[in-house]
Amino acid sequence: MVTYSFQLENFEEWLADFATKLGTPLHDRILTLPSGLGEGIMLARNVNSNFSYAIMNFKLTADLEMHRETGSKSFMISFNQVETHRDPSAGVAPPDKRPYFRNDIFLAEAADSATLRLSAGTTVKRLLILCSHDLAGQYLPQELFDKLASFAKANSNSENPLLINLTHRTMLKELFEIRDGDPLSQIRRLSSVIHLIERSLHSFLRQEQATLPRTVKKTDLESMQHIERILSSRLEGFPSLESLAHEVFMSTSKLKNLFKQVYGHTLYDYYNKSRLQRARDLLTNGQVSIKQAGSEIGFSNLSHFAKAFRKEFGILPRDLVKGR
Hints:
Structural class: alpha+beta
Number of strands: 10
Helix content: 40-55%
Largest sheet: 7 strands, antiparallel
Strand content: 15-25%
Order of helices and strands: EHEEEEEEEEHHEHHHHHHHHH
């Protein structure tokens, strides 16, 4: 196991210190994990003295424990997409043996200590953002700043984080796909980070108004994240309600009501939005024809695909292709 304790002031210093701990050099503020720990990268950028971010995209071959000691007066937002066979907070395997998917957003105080344990075999995609109280205070109304500070303090030990929704997932996917060979990579990353901050604040404000996720048990939230993972990755057709309910050992009526409560969409609407977003990504990247894009996400009729696409995005597939 690799263990690492640190005080967090900014992510560039943090990554440089971690690299020294591992005995691995940095290249342009990017750490390539040594083979004894895993494969993949960690990247850090300081935008200024009050704002920095880090990106993690790797799979572990050894256990890793990171302990953050009391640090600066800053907000830390973490977007977490983690797949493992052990709960990262508890270090134990789920009782039903299915993989544990963590897809959540935590707003916490960097001044508070915290420990993250990740086991060998864990796949990690994380975006971490550090923003000083001074900087946040310059841009946020006092009332919102106070709410965020209170929420961050409580969220550090909460079992009910904000959940990554389809919008977050799409934006994170674009962020993780940015390559350093792109001459605009730093600008594109910063733009993505700022947009994700805006979306997470929007999610926070919606939760403040609705407070729905905080009325759901932790085990049920984990089950809904498992279902969300299935719906967002499945393209060949909508699974039956019975098969989805069997995945999480609950009735179909409870599953339908709980998913709508947590994600704000019905199961089919979420699936449909997810597959249409996949088609849009394919067309935007020029990977396939319009017919191929529709077929890949389960549409055998091209006009039905075009109609659904326009309803979702306000534009026909052919107009999107013309504008590339």
